[in-house]
Q: What sequence folds into this?
């Protein structure tokens, strides 16, 4: 029925599923696979996907503790030189990461968990001349980037549910590894005031910053944001932003502002947006429970040329 498919998203949890993957392996360009059972993991990794460009790989962690499994997985990635985007929803080790960087020169997007990666593990990333986006989950060491050559193409860093033993130390290395970083997202991260100060004062290339559910940030942290003179997009969510947030960053260049569950803000502070954000083109207010529809209407009247969106989520 579908002899020419090039994209497949399917669990590998049976002999029949393995047969399907085997049948289409030579023609697939995009692949998403989830292993519910360990016994199909290694047989799958012995398949060849020579045309594959996009891979979402979700597997059980324990396989990477077995030397034979690591060898088979390394061989698996050596056979896919055309990969451009990899999502590794598993705890890969440094050996696997090294093989990927050596054999996938066109890789532009890499998403992975860092729990099993030690110091200097990301030094291998310096080989990826086309890497633009890096997303990390889990626990990582601050010196994971040590000895990594600069990656001028890297412009997006996503830290989702990340714990770092020295967060500011990580960003000190990131500043040199990604000299052209434009986008930084930190969700459920342990960024604190001193770290945000360092980012604001030292990563001048940032144009987009998202901070969501960073419990170590206090009200004092936000006064440094206008040091980011190229920042055009600011997104804040689940944060105790101060009531006078808009007064703290009067020199900002923000054109796109999103506020989600910033419950210390109320209608009284909204008129300051028109005064302190003269370049604003878009504003989104979501589930900030002290801000009413009437308050939103007033700011719309003050900024008729800006698109202002408001909605409530529970």
A:
């Amino acid at each position: 029925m579908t002899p020419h498919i090039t994209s497949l998203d399917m669990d590998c949890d049976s002999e029949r599923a393995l047969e399907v993957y085997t049948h289409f392996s030579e023609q697939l360009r995009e692949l998403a696979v989830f292993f519910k059972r360990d016994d199909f993991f290694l047989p799958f990794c012995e398949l060849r996907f020579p045309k594959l460009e996009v891979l979402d790989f979700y597997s059980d962690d324990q396989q990477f503790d077995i030397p034979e499994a690591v060898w088979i997985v390394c061989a698996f990635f050596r056979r896919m030189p055309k990969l451009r985007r990899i999502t590794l929803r598993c705890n890969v080790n440094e050996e696997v990461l090294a093989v990927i960087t050596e054999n996938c020169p066109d890789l532009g997007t890499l998403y992975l968990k860092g729990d099993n990666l030690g110091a200097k593990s990301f030094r291998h990333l310096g080989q990826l001349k086309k890497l633009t986006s890096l997303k990390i989950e889990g626990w990582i060491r601050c010196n994971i980037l040590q000895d990594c050559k600069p990656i001028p193409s890297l412009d997006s860093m996503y830290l989702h549910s990340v714990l770092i033993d020295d967060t500011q130390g990580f960003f000190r290395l990131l500043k040199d590894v990604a000299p052209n970083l434009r986008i930084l997202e930190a969700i459920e991260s342990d960024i604190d005031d001193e770290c945000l100060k360092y980012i604001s004062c030292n990563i001048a290339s940032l144009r987009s910053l998202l901070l969501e559910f960073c419990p170590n940030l206090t009200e004092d942290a936000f006064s440094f944001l206008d040091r980011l003179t190229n920042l055009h997009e600011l997104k804040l969510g689940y944060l105790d932003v101060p009531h006078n947030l808009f007064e703290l960053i009067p020199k900002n260049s923000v054109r796109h502002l999103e506020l989600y569950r910033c419950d210390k803000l109320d209608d009284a502070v909204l008129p300051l947006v028109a005064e302190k954000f003269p370049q604003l083109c878009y504003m989104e207010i979501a589930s900030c429970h002290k801000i009413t529809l009437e308050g939103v209407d007033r700011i719309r009247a003050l900024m008729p040329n800006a698109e202002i969106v408001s909605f409530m989520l529970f």
User: Anything to note?
Assistant: The first strand starts at residue 7 and ends at 11. The two ends are 43 Å apart (CA to CA).
